[in-house]
Specification:
This protein is 37% helix and 18% strand. The chain has 563 residues and is α+β, with helices and mostly antiparallel strands. The protein has three domains: 175 residues, Uridine Diphospho-n-acetylenolpyruvylglucosamine Reductase, domain 3; 146 residues, no CATH class; 116 residues, Alpha-Beta Plaits. The strands form three sheets. A seven-stranded antiparallel sheet has the order 12-9-11-10-14-15-13. Strands 3, 4, 5, 6, 7 and 8 form a six-stranded antiparallel sheet that branches. β3 and β4 form a beta hairpin. The radius of gyration is 23 Å and the shape is globular. Its EC number is 1.3.1.72.
């Protein structure tokens, strides 16, 4: 067996859950899609109502809501109440990780009112927003002004709070870094009820650097100031097919945005947007985009593709046509481009509704898409949820750029998941060591894509049913994830914690650095008030006993260090 040949596996006997999953589209069509559309519409009306208010009125309401949060926190009795959590229902989260910590005793704080855009400051080029503002909402407001967040995640439902406390990336991250790297300031309610504004150069700078990836375990985020950039009306997108082995595909992907002469900060050589989709072990399409004006896009001979229309082919399938037609260029309205993967949820929509990519469905019912991820989770039940954990993969592997080829070969051999999404991002060398950090001494190697101040990483997005599952073979999903996590630890990679994790506490802190995070937990009183980030990310149900033991262990540790 060659290095890239997948291992032979025995056939798996089907059980009742297999058939339920196979015909789950019936529930999605008649229940999930109509409710999703209704919720999308009601949310849109709420956003429009908010936008009609003056910034002064929104700020007044924000201040009142912050006071309610502070009052609620001060009502908590540390000796009798559980650890603090938001009141959001577990199934509402967009991530695939089970929010099982809310099944145990906890003290709820309601943040549902924090869903307003507070200010678009054109002078400072900053958007001040509340944590439940989502990407669709902010792009709808900012794009008509020819402004956008420096990093704006593709799926409409992803919220500012989730992208900051967790993880967020987009095709512009090779320039600006991860979503959290574009934040200018955080407004945080601490465990003792204090409201502080943390920036990189004020007295709360340690908190500023510790917030990303902390999963809301240092304090309650109530607003953020995020960098804006000027944009144009269209994206000039070039589709370039690549044929070769996985190492050759990886090099073509690197060459699409990282000049070999190391001139990574030259806008003439580096595109505004980058992504690559790998459709098989030998075929991929590299896409590079540059902002273009309305005048340029409408010049004679240019092709304009409004991919946001409900009846249009799903974007990943449209991009795949480059493998047959060859390299081509087209112009896409900027907001349509930002949310190009929303309707089909990348390619997960093909599994949820196998026929939804057909023209007849897109034309008649495409306007109902996509189903809300939260409703998909709410209607799946425990057995189906466990089935997906074993028979389905939704993971992101953040790896150094020079190791992308190795990561692709590993994924092919152990999971056989296609398509694969590749998106580069900078990992900055910061004044302090945060939970995620570049390889020590990376700047000395002068590798392709790196600069003196940032190492280039890549998100290897693995989302779909593995090849063995599609062929009806035995597949150990939990074991594959454990192997992936071990591979990431050995190769200085990281696993975003929105996904299902099999990490032990020891391995969690081998992957992530605990120094600054634990310092801030102690300094700002989070220990004994908010659960630790590992405990919050831990797979499986949390019992009352586990909560009490975790609280006791954290408090004892904190008291010992104080003494």
């Amino acid at each position: 067996m060659s290095d890239l040949e997948a291992p032979l596996r025995p056939k798996r006997k089907k059980i009742w859950v297999d058939y339920f999953v196979q015909f789950r589209w019936i529930i999605v069509i008649f229940v999930v899609l109509p409710i999703s559309f209704t919720l999308y519409f009601l949310t849109y009306l709420g956003d429009v109502k908010s936008e009609m208010k003056s910034f002064k009125q929104r700020q007044k309401e924000h201040d009142e809501n912050v006071k309610k949060v502070v009052k609620r926190l001060k009502q908590r009795n540390a000796s009798t109440d559980g650890l603090v959590c938001t009141a959001r229902k577990p199934w509402i989260a967009v991530g695939m990780r089970n929010v099982d910590y809310k099944r145990a005793r906890h003290f709820e704080v309601d943040l549902s009112a924090f869903r307003n855009i507070l200010e678009i400051d054109k002078e400072r080029m900053v958007a001040r927003v509340e944590p439940l503002v989502n990407m669709g909402q902010i792009s709808r407001v900012a794009v008509p002004m020819n402004l956008a967040l420096a990093v704006i995640a593709e799926l409409d439902d992803l919220t500012v709070g989730g992208l900051i406390n967790g993880y967020g990336i987009e095709g512009s991250s090779h320039i600006y870094g991860l979503f959290s790297d574009t934040v200018v300031a955080y407004e945080i309610v601490l465990a003792d009820g204090r409201v502080v504004r943390a920036t990189k150069d004020n007295e709360y700078s340690d908190l500023f650097y510790a917030i990303p990836w902390s999963q809301g375990t240092l304090g309650l985020l109530v607003s953020a100031e995020i960098k804006l950039i000027p944009i144009k009306e269209y994206m000039r997108l070039t589709y370039k097919p690549v044929v070769g082995n996985l190492k050759e595909v990886a090099q073509a992907y690197i060459d699409s945005f990282a000049p070999r002469d190391g001139d990574q900060d030259n806008p003439e050589k580096v595109p505004d947007f980058v992504e690559t989709m790998i459709y098989s072990p030998t075929e991929a399409v590299c896409m590079t985009g540059r902002y273009a004006s309305n005048e340029e896009a409408k010049k004679k001979g240019n092709v304009i593709n409004r991919v946001g229309w409900w009846f249009k082919p799903w974007f990943y399938q449209h991009a795949q046509t480059a493998l047959k037609r060859g390299e081509f260029v087209e112009y896409i309205p900027t907001r349509d481009y930002y949310h190009r993967h929303t309707r089909c949820l990348y390619w997960e929509g093909k599994l949820i509704l196998p026929f939804a990519d057909q023209f007849w469905f897109r034309f008649l019912f495409g306007w109902l898409m996509p189903p809300k991820v939260s409703l998909l989770k709410a209607t799946q039940g425990e057995a189906i949820r466990n089935y997906y954990h074993e028979m389905h993969v939704i993971q992101d592997m953040l790896v150094p750029l020079y190791k992308v080829g190795d990561a692709l070969e590993w994924v092919h051999q152990e999971m056989e998941v296609y398509p694969i999404w590749l998106c580069p991002h900078r990992l900055y060398k910061l004044p302090v060591k945060t939970m995620v950090y570049p390889e020590p001494g990376f700047e000395l190697h002068r590798r392709q894509g790196d600069t003196q101040y940032a190492q280039m990483y890549t998100d290897v997005g693995v989302y779909y049913s593995p090849g063995p599952v599609l062929r009806g073979e035995v597949f150990d999903g939990a074991g594959a994830v454990r192997q992936m996590e071990n591979w990431l630890i050995e190769n200085h990679g990281f696993q975003p914690q929105y996904a299902v994790s099999e990490l032990t506490e020891k391995n969690f802190w081998r992957m992530f650095d605990a120094g600054l995070y634990e310092h801030c937990r102690r300094k700002y009183g989070a220990v004994g008030t908010f659960m630790s980030v590992y405990y919050k990310s831990k797979k499986g149900r949390k019992t009352e006993k586990e909560v009490q033991e975790a609280e006791k262990a954290e408090l004892e540790t904190a008291h010992a260090e104080v003494e």
